[in-house]
Structure formats: structure tokens, C-alpha cells
Amino acid sequence: MAIEAENRFGLKxxxxxxxxxxxxxxxxxxCVRCGNIFYEYHHHNPPFASAHTHDPMGITLLCxxxxxxxxKGFLKPADFAPFIASPWPLRQGFSCxxxxxxxxxxxRIEIGPVTAESTSVVLEIETFTLLEIEPPEEPNTxxxxxxxxxxxxxxxxxxxxxxxxxxxxxxxxxxxxxxxIKVRSGPRQIALAIQxxxxxxxxxxxxxxxxxxxxxxxxxxxxxxISPAKxxxxxxxxxxxxxxxxxxxxxxxxxxxxxxxxxRFKGSFL
Length: 270
Known about the structure:
Elements: H1 17-27, E1 40-43, E2 59-62, H2 64-71, H3 77-85, H4 88-92, E3 108-111, E4 114-117, E5 121-125, E6 128-134, E7 144-150, E8 156-161, E9 164-167, E10 173-177, E11 180-186, E12 189-196, E13 201-211, E14 214-218, E15 223-226, E16 232-241, E17 245-250, E18 253-256, E19 262-269
Parallel strand pairs: 3-13, 4-16, 5-17
Antiparallel strand pairs: 1-2, 3-4, 5-6, 6-7, 7-8, 8-9, 10-11, 11-12, 12-13, 13-14, 14-15, 15-16, 16-19, 17-18
């Protein structure tokens, strides 16, 4: 069932960013029950249907799985009360701590054979950012992942915006497991896999995206972008430092890095 844009009191679903910031701080930047760094905002006191305002003290963070168990009745509101009062991330001192970074960390991103340092925007197509990994919001909090996935018809299936998850297709799932993050489009179908290597390095080991006719794929050993005109870019080795973006693609071609301080490339256009 689709979520209503507003409740009977005219309160819209969209929570203002200043209030979101307070909610994230209260919850410890992760699901209050399990610590997952990918979450949804949940109105608990009162429920959204009865809320007149977005009160940060009555809203918390739940991951997609915990939120689903609550909405489907497998867990009751009372089951979450102890975690709302004492969130898992605050008790443990981290949100899924395998993804904690130092206060001065700029994530070093490895995507297949491509390495980018001090570069947050990994991929943008037609000026739309599809994949971005930003530094932590505050010291000792998780890095912030933004990623958009669409079906072949262009419809949005899953969106992660600075760790806030919006899943628009029933078979998609986002989860933190075994020291890594996986976005699945179905059973055994991995659309994005990220692994934390050390305190500063994040490795993208799997990526499959489709957007406006462009197809982007990545494995451990290769990275490729195929345009709607079937032009293929393959990176065998690419190192970039201090760039505003890594890959910027549009109908006229592709730009590798903007404002680059260091650039080394080995690959091909076919």
C-alpha cells in the first residue's frame, strides 16, 4: 500500500533537515535496535497518523528490516521501547562499528581497479549523482552513502540518500553483513557491494547500475560504462586524487575527474 503524502492533520511525510539531524543524534546514527547504518525514520510517539508535528523526541531510526518486522506485526511497539530509550548505537559507541571513521577521515574509495582519494562523488550521469560516499557527519560516526538504482524502464527501485533508505520495489533489500554492505535487487542479485578495508578505505567490489540508457558495471577486477550508443569505456587501472568527481557521463561523452591534483589512467574506449 502506498504511503500517503500527508496525514489527516495535513502533516507531510517529509521531515525538515534540522529535525532529521536531531533525530540522528538521538538515535546514534543507526537503527536503534540493531545498529544498522542504513535506516528509515519512524514516528513512534505518536504514530505518524496521529502526529500534528515532526517532534524529534517522538521519531527514531529503524533499519528496513526492523521497520518491516514492526509494520508486519512480527514485532510490537513495546518491543522497541527499550531500544528507543537506550539506542543500540549509543550503548555500543558506534553504528555498525565496522564502518566508523576518524574525525579527519576522507574515505579512500576503491571501485574495482579504480582508486580515488579525497573524492566523494564517484559517478554522475547527465549531472545526476548516482553514487557518492561522503565523510562522516560528526567524529566517530559512519560515512554517508548516496546511491540510486533504477529498473530498465527508468523507474526508481531503491534510493539511499546519506544513509536514509527508500525501497520502492518489493524484491530489493539493503543490509550490513560480515563487515560489508550489500544492496540486492533479488535473491543472489547484487547491485552494490561495499567492504571496509581499514579506517579510511572503502572498497566497492560489485556494482550494477542502469540509468538513462547507460549501464555501469564493476567487479573486483574491472570497471566499465556502456553508453546508449554502445560506446564502451573500460578501466584497467585508474588513480585519482583530490577531484570533485570521479566519473561524469553525458550524451557528449565522459569526463574523468574534475579539478584533479593527481591522475593516472590505463584503459580503453571501444
